[in-house]
Design a protein that fits this description.
CATH superfamily of the largest domain in chain B: P-loop containing nucleotide triphosphate hydrolases
CATH class of the largest domain in chain B: Alpha Beta
CATH superfamily of chain A: ABC transporter involved in vitamin B12 uptake, BtuC
Number of domains of chain B: 2
CATH class of chain A: Mainly Alpha
Radius of gyration of chain A: 20 Å
Helix content of chain B: 25-40%
Oligomer: heterodimer
Order of helices and strands of chain B: EEEHEEHEHHHEHEHEEHHEE
Number of strands of chain A: 0
CATH architecture of the largest domain in chain B: 3-Layer(aba) Sandwich
Shape of chain B: globular
CATH architecture of chain A: Orthogonal Bundle
């Protein structure tokens, strides 16, 4: 855990220092310290460099931290709730719902696009709520295949509507497409403050449930005889993970694979109890996305590779690796 | 609520009173009007053919199936207890427990402390120490940090028992604790349960298929058939040829071992056919 936190700090500093304008690490540290309250350090850094660090680089890095940690934590939580190693935070349709919400916001004329994050957030939450209601009703309890199938169905419906709207507004194809691929290129402090409360609340709730996710792994009956209500735990965890994930993707777009790769990496290196996997995934997810975003803006500089493309490019091969190694260690979960 | 003749509340700590307990599965009756009292510190064995209602009765006591009638522990109706309060009174070990493969032994056993932790709480140093002491008591100190996937069947059996004991409940329910074990491991497991029962003053209710072993370990036996109690008493009284023949639908012979223990031998009904 301490290693993961230390690594994150280093990654944040390096990532803030690297960019088209060359800044040294000490400049970055100085600017950061000068913004700390109570310290009143007089900074010798030029106003331009200050602005680059504080207004351009740092919001982007901080946003990557929030989104990355939320997606990784959400993924680990979903894997625990559904006891399925391939579950990711988009399993119940949050991505399709957010995609539809964002598309509607983009194609609506008269500057409605300011509400893009709100529309994406609402779309994601509505999709998951629909999935949960139909899936839980079909099976009588809230785990297992019926809810995952309901997720597939809801996602298909939302994607179909989204595709249809997108085709009818061909002029807006470009912004819709780039939102779906995911990017942090226009990150500002207002994005950070917009999603911060949701991410913090969601993370707090999920981390508080880390033991109960372990209890669920014993099965329904044993969980009940230990004084736990499995359905309630699943409902709370899914609701919290959905809220956080929907908030994260509302500003970043649909960044894939973080929610699967990071928890699996954590499981391979740390012990497999959710009491450890959840907090370490949170921190490692942040590091992972900061690094991925650094790749996204540096690989093809001064152009940008969509962030979703970077994570998928790393995620795809990793996925194959996990599937192959599952044969040797029986059962990743 | 509490019997007048009982002065110390400790005496009824592990007492279970079943009154007219009835369980339906869809439209068939799985358990029909069972009335019985399990005394503090007693080991009650539930026996009967498959489908007789042994597991159903155990699961009704564990609140895992809905029932009509009344089940009281410590004089209190169990269905009106809070689930965490109930979990501190009754620990249940299912027939086929699930073992998360990569979890470490100590983390697994610590899950037994769940009823003592707040909804958002974490296990304390105290909880960890208790679990480590339990593992040591069951001879597993050296396995504390090992993942469950590396353990043998016997080790897992002791581990699930440790997890149940970590609940520190006065009542221990065991569903077929010796299924899928070889002869030696069966005796070992039951002896361990018996030692712990005496040491920790537990009331134990278990279903058991092996009647010869049941006769050696349990204090009382309930013989169930088609959801009803058909015999009740000490093993010597219940394990008799007529009723076993009738309710297990097989010819059995009761023999006596050299120390006068009961040996139940099922016999084949047709002669062996020889090929030549």
């Amino acid at each position: 855990m301490l290693v993961a936190i230390a690594f994150l700090v280093v990654v944040i500093l390096i990532s803030t220092a690297i960019g088209p304008a060359d800044l040294s690490l000490s400049t970055v540290v100085e600017v950061l310290l000068s913004h700390l309250p109570l310290l009143h350090l007089h900074s010798s850094v030029s106003a331009l460099d200050q602005a680059i660090v504080w207004q351009i680089r740092l919001p982007r890095v901080v946003l990557a931290v929030l989104v990355g940690s939320m997606l990784a934590l959400g993924g680990a939580s979903y894997q625990g709730v559904f006891r399925n190693p391939l579950a990711d935070p988009y399993l119940l349709g949050v991505a399709a719902g957010a995609g539809l919400g964002a598309t509607i916001a983009i194609v609506t004329p008269s500057g409605f696009s300011e509400f893009l994050p709100l529309a994406a957030f609402l779309g994601g939450v509505v999709a998951v709520a629909l999935t949960y209601l139909t899936g839980a009703k079909a099976s009588g309890h809230s785990s297992g295949p019926s809810i995952i199938l309901a997720g597939v169905a809801v996602a298909a419906i939302f994607t179909a509507i989204q595709t249809n709207i997108q085709q009818q507004h061909a002029a807006d194809l470009q912004p819709v497409y780039s939102w779906i691929l995911g990017s942090l290129s226009v990150a500002t402090w207002s994005d950070v403050t917009l999603i911060l409360p949701y991410v913090v609340l969601s993370a707090a709730i999920l981390l508080a449930h880390r033991r109960l996710l372990d209890v669920l792994r014993l099965g329904e009956e044993e969980a009940m005889t230990l004084g736990v209500n499995p359905n309630r735990v699943r409902l709370v965890v899914v609701a919290a993970a959905t809220m956080g994930t929907a908030a994260a993707v509302s500003v970043s777009g649909l960044i894939g694979f973080v929610g699967i790769i990071v928890p699996h990496l954590v499981r391979l290196t740390a012990n497999a109890s959710y009491r450890v996997v959840l907090p370490v995934s949170l921190v490692s997810g942040a590091s992972f996305l900061v690094l991925a975003d650094l790749c996204a803006r540096m690989v093809d500089a001064p152009g940008e590779v969509p962030l979703g493309v970077v994570t998928a490019f790393i995620g795809g091969p990793f996925f194959i690796f996990v599937l192959r190694s599952r044969r040797s260690h029986q059962g990743v979960l | 609520m509490v019997d007048d003749d009982v002065t110390s509340s400790d005496l009824v700590r592990g007492q279970i009173e079943l009154h007219d307990v009835l369980v339906h599965y869809h439209d068939s009756v799985a358990l029909n009007s069972v009335t019985h009292r399990v005394d503090f510190g007693e080991w009650l064995g539930l026996i009967g053919a498959n489908g007789a209602g042994k597991s159903t009765l155990l699961r009704a006591i564990a609140r895992l199936v809905g029932y009509q009638g009344s089940i009281r522990i410590h004089g209190c109706e169990t269905r009106s207890m809070h689930r965490r309060e109930f979990a501190r009174l009754v620990a249940y070990v299912p027939q086929n427990p699930q073992f998360p493969a990569q979890m470490r032994a100590i983390d697994y056993v610590a899950l037994g402390r769940t009823p003592y932790q707040g909804y958002f709480g974490a296990e304390s140093e105290h909880d960890r120490e208790r679990c480590a002491a339990l593992l040591a008591r069951l001879g597993m100190s050296h396995l504390i940090l090992r993942p469950l996937s590396t353990m043998s069947g016997g080790e897992l059996q002791r581990l699930v028992l440790s997890r149940a004991l970590a609940q520190e409940a006065p009542i221990l329910l065991l569903d077929e604790p010796t299924s899928a074990m070889d002869l030696g491991r069966r005796v070992e497991a039951l002896e361990l349960v018996d030692e712990l029962r005496v040491e920790r003053q537990l009331t134990v209710v278990s279903t058991l298929h092996d009647l010869t072993l049941a006769a050696q370990f349990v204090d009382r036996v309930l013989l169930l058939a088609k959801g009803s109690v058909v015999a009740d008493g000490v093993p010597d009284v219940v394990l008799i040829e007529e009723s076993l023949n009738q309710h297990f639908d097989v010819k059995v012979e009761i023999l006596r071992s050299t120390d006068n223990g009961i040996v139940v031998v099922p016999r084949r009904s047709r002669k062996k056919v020889h090929h030549d």
